[in-house]
Amino acid sequence: MSGTNSERELIAEGPAIILVEPQLGENIGMVARAMANFGLAELRLVNPRDGWPSEKARAAASKADHVIDATKVYETLEEATADLNFVYATTARERYGFKPVRSPVVACQTLQQKFKGGEKTGILFGRERWGLTNEEVALADEIVTFPVNPAFASLNIAQAVLLMSYEWMKCGMEDLSETLFDPVEQKPSTKEQVFGLFEHLEEALDSRGYFHPPAKKPRMIDNLRAVISRRGFSEQEISVFRGVINSLDRFPRQWPRKVVPRQQKATDKAEIEGNDGE
Amino acid sequence: MSGTNSERELIAEGPAIILVEPQLGENIGMVARAMANFGLAELRLVNPRDGWPSEKARAAASKADHVIDATKVYETLEEATADLNFVYATTARERYGFKPVRSPVVACQTLQQKFKGGEKTGILFGRERWGLTNEEVALADEIVTFPVNPAFASLNIAQAVLLMSYEWMKCGMEDLSETLFDPVEQKPSTKEQVFGLFEHLEEALDSRGYFHPPAKKPRMIDNLRAVISRRGFSEQEISVFRGVINSLDRFPRQWPRKVVPRQQKATDKAEIEGNDGE
Prior knowledge:
The structure is a homodimer.
Chain A: E1 16-20, H1 25-37, E2 43-46, H2 55-60, H3 65-70, E3 72-74, H4 77-81, E4 86-90, E5 101-102, H5 104-116, E6 121-125, H6 134-138, E7 142-144, H7 157-171, H8 191-206, H9 217-228, H10 235-250, H11 267-270
Parallel strand pairs in A: 1-2, 1-6, 2-3, 4-6, 4-7, 5-7
């Protein structure tokens, strides 16, 4: 994932996003941006209050120009959905009716299946203030609603589009734990490397009288090894740790010690035998 | 899900959302609203540019006052995370480093596990323009990044918070197909009810000479029954259909027929024997 944006794969497919009588250009722009974030590209507007094109929409789209430029405007919802095979209506309110009600996860699985089968699909979003009318919902095949906090259920239009776009992108992924980039790859350390760390550290501590009284030394070593190896080390980490020990062991301080407030001891740790340096 | 908002369950728990040096009050407000939508309540600000409290934030929060009122302000990120056990940093950019990189789904599973285990967690979000510094990312335990369109990867801060809050809510659900409300419950019809519909319709059609030529009547009836019963009917639907047939069958038109453009026939349907009324 290096290089400029223009070298990166631009994903632009999937269901049409249909905004019914959107009021603010800014919201249309934020919808376009949310679509672009998750690879959707086809925006349709039914009767936008302030007309189209809209400079406010373009500004709010933050460079999602490919969505803004391809946006189509219709006079009626019927025209806006005429060429589609299957349409979802989004709503936060319970509706009287027979239509199936789906969660975003289930809806996006259905949309992905239909997409793979060559069907054209769309998702309807209502006006900023009061959503879709019952008549508009009736034109859709199914309803999709978000698993929101019941006491605070109203999503703004760009956020609703963002969530559906995000679920659309996720449903197309084979592995939901996939990420666009990975951490630096690390090789697990071998036991030999771990033992080398132990010995290095223990020798440096021993030379300073850390293992005191001598009778407790074996137990203290066991505890020390348990503490520092509780999670598996990578080769790189072993190398970082050994550098730290080298530095502490070999080189003198170059300025006086500052007073750092001590951490309060956790009771269960206080009982492990070790030298806490006090 | 009836009644006013105040009667509904207010969910307010889960990870703290920590905004590092947010610039615009509007964005802080939209973050608060997104949190409230999905049941998060603890907002922390590190050095907000325009100070706190912010009237712009309160206005943009659209009544998420419980989040705005409880927002805490800190001078440093270290102070803002001091009481937490586990912290995620959100970033859209690849970072050099050893930290595990997680998808939102995996991150929210981890956060839910830690929540159930009594740990306090948080999620860091960077400045509007350029996110978190490497030093700030270094203070977190793990990185979380969104499965965005590689060519259009930049999410605004409220949208990033919305997605994490939404995943948090979803991870706490036992069933991802769950919805807050359901369609009108429908009883599947019995075969007797379906046969009643067939007979009703066929009698009304027969009385008008629909089954023509008579030799083809059995085949035409088979086809008609197949077409109208392809998906299972509910009792309610049978009842609606029978009302429609009654109306067409019994009552005369009250105004002349309008010309409705005919649907183009699909080739595969044209071969099924039926009377298309032409």
